Amino acid sequence: MESLALLHPAALYTLVVVFGLLIGSFLNVVILRVPEALFHEWRCQCRELLELEPEQTPAPASVATGRSRCPACRQPIAWYDNIPLLSWIALRARCRRCDAPISARYPAVEALTALLSLIVIVQLGPTVAGLAGLVFTWMLIAASGIDLEHKLLPDQFTLPLIWAGLALNLFGIFSDLQSAVIGAIAGYLVLWLVFHLFRLATGKEGMGFGDFKLLSAIGAWFGWQVLPTVILLASAVGAIVGLSLIAARKMGREVPIAFGPFLAAAGWLVLISGQRIVDFWLIF
């Protein structure tokens, strides 16, 4: 860490952007493969519980193993076609072998990861807080990508974030330990209470349990004091986006909207702005 602090700012920021692009490429793999592995595991468990024949389809590739393949032709992707951003542009968003379109999600995640990583280091510096902030950012991007696509926030992201926040605040990195513990408890209970009140009033489930855990994680990282700001900001932006999509007739009223990405965005803003955004909302 000391060696990073000695780098010229331009060199440091360039290193962060390049590393962010590489991490973004890895996060694309995570967003694609983690849900596939979870769905396969759940099918196997259900078949075992119902005493049915074992799942016949092979287990999908894990995040750490298996080469990237084109979703259309299933051919392995060569390393020179897997360079973040550049390969997508050079291939004109098409598979080299079968000419199937390549989703713009891949370069978008890579660019977003690089940009947010740069902002974190500019704001927090090459410090323990800065490095922790990078991990927090990457976990939020992966969790948000999965939630947007599958309406699912896996425990593999939310639970480690809770424990990581509490561990960091043993040393007061972002908050004192008492505020962090109260934040973890309150973050879960607030949305848990909203969930059950909404279900009693409407007979429907308004959000998933993953949202409770994500807000709990944000409380564990930054303390209970930020929770009203996070909830207000996430709810306001979520409502605006939802109403805009309905007005544009791109989504029906009954179609659920993933709330996790809005919580994640609000939590990330707290990371880079700290007490300033809390003070802004209190004044507002």
Give the biggest sheet: none
Radius of gyration: 21 Å
Relative strand content:
under 5%
Order of helices and strands: HHHHHHHHHHH
Helix share bin: 55-70%
The structure class reads mainly alpha
Q: Output the number of helix runs.
A: 11
The coarse silhouette is globular
Give the termini distance in whole angstroms.
38 Å
Q: Can you count the beta strands?
A: 0
Average pLDDT score: 86
Oligomer: single chain
Q: Which parts are unreliable, with pLDDT below 50 for 5 consecutive residues or more?
A: none
Please, could you describe this protein's structure?
It is built from eleven helices and no strands. The chain is globular. The chain has 284 residues and is mainly α. The model has no long low-confidence stretch (mean pLDDT 86). Helix content is 68%, strand content 0%.
Features:
mainly alpha, 68% helix, 284 residues
Concise description?
It contains 11 helices and no strands. It is mainly alpha-helical and about 280 residues long. The radius of gyration is 21 Å and the shape is globular.
What order do the helices and strands come in, and which of them pair?
Layout (H helix, E strand, L loop, with lengths): L1 H5 L2 H41 L36 H5 L14 H20 L3 H23 L4 H14 L8 H26 L6 H14 L4 H21 L12 H14 L1 H9 L1
